[in-house]
Write a structure and sequence with these properties.
Blueprint lengths: L2 E7 L7 H11 L4 E7 L5 H7 L5 E6 L13 E2 L1 H6 L4 E5 L2 E5 L2 H12 L8 E5 L3 H12 L4 E6 L2 H10 L6 E6 H5 L11 E4 L26 E4 L8 H9 L3 E2 L2 H16 L5 H16 L1
Parallel strand pairs: 1-2, 1-3, 4-6, 7-8, 7-10, 8-9, 10-11, 11-12
Antiparallel strand pairs: 3-5, 5-6
Helix pairs in contact: 1-9, 1-10, 4-5, 4-9, 9-10
This protein binds NADP nicotinamide-adenine-dinucleotide phosphate.
Length: about 290
Amino acid sequence: MKKYTGIIGKPLGHSMSPVLQNSAFAYHRLDIVYEAWETDLTELSNRIEQLRKLNVLGFNVTVPFKESIMGLLDEIDIHAKEIGAVNTVVNNNNKLIGFNTDAKGFLQALEEDGGFHCTDKNILIIGAGGSSKSVFSTLLREKPKTITIANRSIDKAHKLIIENHVKDIEINILELDELNSLNYSHKHIPDLIINCTPIGMRYTDEEKISPVGERVISEKSLVYDLVYNPMETELLKIAKKKSGKTLGGLPMLIYQGAAAFELWTGKYPPIEIMFEKAKNALSINNS
Ligand SMILES: NC(=O)c1ccc[n+]([C@@H]2O[C@H](COP(=O)([O-])OP(=O)(O)OC[C@H]3O[C@@H](n4cnc5c(N)ncnc54)[C@H](OP(=O)(O)O)[C@@H]3O)[C@@H](O)[C@H]2O)c1
């Protein structure tokens, strides 16, 4: 019997997850299909009940449900619980178990594709939503010197810090507007700037916008945009001119997706094929 997996969130027009997961299922000749299930907040609980069906192996969760989904699942893996966000759900005989593969994908991409190690570095995170939770709790384990979080709603940034019981690392919080104001000057020049907002994402009103201006980026900063469609966002275009050091969201997408594939199938993910198919689809999409 054909099995199903997919992704829930809204919007999903930009998502490359169907391309990379279907390429991995085809590689292993598995009769599994990955679909995009665009879902409104009001439909979320009904959608989850539909997905308990036996022929659904599991699914991914994206913007804006990575936190709100947690209360609708039967069990949360300890690592995802610590982070406070779920991006992958496994259906184990109608029991829905939440995992977080974003954290692993984020760090693997930063180290392997960005060549960056966080120990003793100054880091600026933009955003305090579901992906920031994964990013922030991962970074804390890597012992950076300082972390600054800039978010539109400052309360959410404070909550992130309280939930993580931070010790021994200097943390600063800013409103995003404050970061972008003309009066802003860095307390700590960032070695790494990470965009964890959807600003710059394709098929949205903010596609042509960068979350920060040129003056926030220093000559030494690596700029890491979690947004992967388009491959070169407005933020990365600015960073390319200013520091020349950029990392897009595609490697993270592949690594988090590979970890999800392994959870659903127990099989080795064909990472190179997943990369190639997603890159090709993005190139067509971006041309
Ligand atoms: N490459 C990958 O594998 C990967 C993995 C995960 C996520 N992502 C991408 O990362 C992005 C964020 O995802 P998420 O799950 O963290 O989303 P989310 O939970 O909805 O959080 C979004 C964050 O962005 C802020 N934000 C949203 N729109 C804004 C705007 N117009 N101006 C200022 N701030 C704004 C929100 O601020 P408030 O707190 O004030 O609402 C919030 O902090 C998405 O584009 C997603 O596709 C990529």
